[in-house]
Design a protein that fits this description.
single chain, alpha+beta, 3-stranded antiparallel β-sheet
């Protein structure tokens, strides 16, 4: 690692998507912070916490840490004169349940989990299998595909559409592609960085497009109920009260987007990593039943979500540093997932690894509600790739990474 890069990261760390070295491989920077400044103050206005036990403590602690004042947190990025709620992308984000604290979070999450039950997710297993086979059937005779757009994006999108009951008359292939693009563009606000004017305008326009689409879906389910997740969200009740129309729309966008981002990146990152470690791909081909544990190791080793934010509610001490009430904390999930204090040989990729769990899905009251679905999609997707394309070759030389918060690929060429 270059000395100048080491000094830069230790002095004033930021998850800067324009930092080409960080984009290509963030783990040396994570390790540097974890070993030399595990509770690091960045002049960008937040603490950066990198050790597993500290990160876990922060994301599990609902008394001392939470989401805090959303409007204030966004103004920390743009300045005090920034009109947060005049921007549709931030107006949506403010009302998503994952950015709420109790009691509002408790009510919203409870209603979502009433609809997105474990039984409903497990009932999707045969449909996920069918969708996976259909996607592979379309490309297998061609001998090659661009994996991210031809498979990794399409699988979670098709699965979530199936769960929501969105069929071809509500969203054809072109509209599904537009929805995928809208998620990518609008979810930039989740990175909690000041967006350039053109990116912020695009995020605003795309979130309005998503709001209009999902409002139409719920309007239709209200008059024509079905046995699907959209209808279940309409019917969920807490003490007789359900989700408002706006709440249902924000939830649907969040579920659709989170499933897309996490699963698509897990599959893309996973295929790249498996072929960077060909012995592990050979193991999976020899025993596709390893797909579930392979998914967990991919999520640990090449986290599709590298960090999450919290706000301190009280003065709290970690590693001899005091995080003051009101200050923001960047809890580095990707760094925690490779902490040698917790994981044996953390920089070794091993799909048979057992032991402590990764933190990619978060923890506590904000543990990812779609984790079980993402795991199921990863298990089935990887198993079928190993079974049906065992001789595939993957371009591992020049991966095209698209971000540092959501870590995923924009392109991955494979052939067989």
């Amino acid at each position: 690692m270059a000395d100048v890069a080491s000094g830069r990261w230790l002095q004033n760390f930021a998850m800067d998507p324009t930092d080409t070295e960080l984009l290509a491989d963030p783990y040396p920077a994570f390790a540097l912070l974890r070993e030399h400044d595990p509770v690091h103050w960045s002049d960008h206005g937040y603490w950066v916490v990198t050790r597993y036990d500290d990160v876990r403590a922060i994301i599990m602690d609902r008394q001392n840490f939470g989401q805090g004042d959303f409007e204030r947190n966004i103004r920390l990025l743009y300045g005090e004169d920034f009109d947060v709620f005049s921007h549709p992308a931030y107006r949506w984000l403010a009302d998503v349940f994952v950015f709420q604290d109790p009691p509002k979070h408790t009510r919203l999450r409870g209603l979502v989990t009433q609809a997105l039950t474990a039984r409903r997710v497990q009932a999707m297993r045969p449909r996920i299998q069918e969708i996976t086979d259909r996607l592979l059937d379309k490309v297998i005779d061609g001998g090659r595909m661009e994996f991210i757009h031809d498979f990794a994006y399409k699988l979670p999108t098709a699965v979530m559409c199936d769960m929501l009951g969105i069929d071809a008359d509500e969203a054809d292939d072109d509209l599904l592609m537009a929805l995928n693009k809208a998620i990518q563009d609008s979810f930039l606000v989740l990175e909690m960085r000041p967006l350039p004017a053109d990116e912020l305008k695009l995020a605003n326009d795309q979130i309005l497009f998503l709001e209009r689409f999902f409002k139409k879906v719920f309007d239709r389910r209200r008059s024509e109920p079905r046995d699907d997740l959209a209808t279940a969200l309409l019917e969920a009740r807490d003490n007789g009260n359900g989700l408002s129309e706006w709440e249902m729309t924000t939830v649907a966008i969040a579920l659709f987007g989170a499933g897309f981002e996490t699963t698509a990146h897990m599959l893309g990152n996973g295929l790249l990593t498996l072929h960077r470690h060909p012995g592990e791909w050979t193991k999976l081909v020899s025993d596709p039943a390893l797909a579930a544990s392979a998914s967990e190791e991919i999520l640990r080793f090449e986290s599709s979500l590298t960090m999450t934010y919290r706000t301190a509610f009280t003065d709290t001490t970690f590693g001899g540093r005091t995080i003051a009430a009101g200050q923001r904390v960047m809890a580095m999930l990707g760094a925690a997932n490779r902490d040698p204090r917790v994981f044996k040989d953390p920089d070794v990729f091993d799909i048979t690894r057992d032991g402590p769990r990764h933190l990619t899905f978060g923890g506590g009251i904000h543990f990812c509600v779609g984790a079980e679905l993402a795991r199921l999609e990863g298990e089935i997707g990887l198993a079928m790739l190993a079974k049906r394309l065992p001789t595939m070759r993957v371009d591992i030389q020049s991966p095209h990474w698209r971000g540092v918060h959501f870590r995923g690929l924009t392109e991955l060429q494979i052939d067989w």
